Amino acid sequence: MTTLRLDQKLRILDGHYNIGKYSKEDYHYQKNELLHDYTDTRYFINTEEDIINLISSLESEINHKYIYPVMYVYDPKRMIQLGLWPTSVDIDNLMIDWLSGSDPNSMRFWHLSECTRDPEFLKNETVWSYKPVKIIKQEALDEADSTRLMFVAPELVYQKSRRPKTDMSLFRNSSNLRISKNEIIRGKININGETWNVVPVTRYAKGMSRGLYYNNPADDICGTFFYLEEESTTFLTYKRALRAFNKTDAMKKLQILDLSSHETMNIVIETEKHINGYYPRNLILTPSEAFCMNQERHGYSQEIHDYQDGNEIEPNNIPEVPRYAGIYLSLYAKEDKFDQPLCKGARAAGYDIVILENMVGSFQVVTEVLDTRPREESFKNLLYVID
Fold first, then answer.
1. Residue 223 pLDDT level (bands cut at 50, 70, 90)
2. Bridge-partner residues for 237, per DSSP?
3. DSSP letters spanning 295-360
4. pLDDT, tens digit, for every residue of 39-74?
5. Would you list the domain boundaries of the chain?
6. Cβ neighbours of residue 318 under 8 Å, at least 6 residues apart?
7. DSSP assignment, residue 71?
8. How far apart are alpha carbons 277 and 150 in whole angstroms?
9. φ and ψ at 222, to 5 degrees?
10. Sign of torsion, CA 386 212 364 368?
11. What sections of 188-255 are H helices per DSSP?
12. Does residue 44 sit in helix, strand or coil?
């Protein structure tokens, strides 16, 4: 039988407390029981100087390290901003809102959550995580998640898209050309006397959306997705491209959109609102606008309550600050089922790539590039800028 280490026991305890399994009194009792015979260093983080001193003492570490037991944290938000990470919760969109200073009612509204807990519970977090920048960078590239990187090394994140910067070496092979950027003139390049179109792209080991990438795809999976990334130093070459607003628009242009199924019809109803301008192109909405649009979709069945006061959160109860509403409107990954028919249809029509200019991402509307060629051929068509 495996015996858990103290840090593992404390992390389990923290996690149970954070989901409400223990009362505050029971939590502290359990923690004191676990630490009863513990004689090593206990950490009390009372000032920013304490955080900085702790991080300075860890800078020589080359591996991931847990810091425990942390008995008190005066400001968990500042701990995270300076590079130490809680271990009992995920830093998801909700936590990012909190870190950005969003008020609790706004957080409940935008995340459609009736039981959003105040992240101030992290003052009691017993186990914190430290990782060197090198590890954080590699994890960001593997997971296509730059959240932690934005705090510890913002210079390693693309300024506009907020994706992790990557040289795309994961997809590079000996046949890929290395070029100088001045060889690209108005989106074209001459290779051995032949003119090719190029588009700057980026790609990660895993995708930032549910349907964007296939890892270790089966032989019958069509296509390779990239992000269009203006700051990238990697370019994809192609001869013929189809440009479309989104996947629904591309399917219509190819005349392959089959509306016979109820599921497809429901998808198209929503995505056409984006195409036709009912939803703004960037999906930036005020709470009032988003609320009205969501109520129209659900027939006023969506009730969002603030359980601290017992009052329903209406838009007039929160600041009218516009923000991205793609997830709130349930548009994220809405068109995933179109990936394969779109790729096969575009390939059959002679298109090397499909440029989807307004895809709903997790943080913003993005442009995706679907390469319809076999994956190995797609990667061979990447050019790498060396200057």
1. very high
2. 198
3. HHHHTT----EETTTTEE--GGGS----EE-TTTTT-TTTTGGGHHHHHHHHHHTT-SEEEEEEEE
4. 788 999 999 999 999 999 998 888 899 999 999 999
5. 6-156, 169-249+334-385
6. 103, 105, 106, 109, 287
7. E
8. 32
9. -95, 130
10. positive
11. 247-253
12. strand
pLDDT at 311: 42
Pairing label, strands 70-73, 65-67 = unpaired
Encoded tokens for 6? 């103290």
For the chain, the farthest-separated pair of C-alpha atoms sits apart, in whole angstroms, at: 76
The two tokens of residue 153 are 């090394």
pLDDT at 304: 39
CA–CA–CA angle 288, 290, 295 (5° rounding): 95
Q: What is the pLDDT of residues 148-191, one digit of tens each?
A: 898 889 999 999 999 999 989 888 888 888 999 999 999 999 99
- Whole-number pLDDT of residue 25: 85
Residue written as tokens 């309550």?
Answer: 305
Q: Give pTM, 2 decimals.
A: 0.85
Residue 14 has what DSSP assignment?
Answer: H
Which phi and psi (to 5°) does residue 40 adopt? -80, -170
Mean pLDDT of the chain: 86
Say if CB 251 and CB 345 are below 8 A apart. yes
- Average pLDDT of 276-280? 96
Q: Judging by DSSP bridges, how do beta strands 305-306 and 311-312 pair with one another? A: antiparallel
CA distance 127 to 123: 11
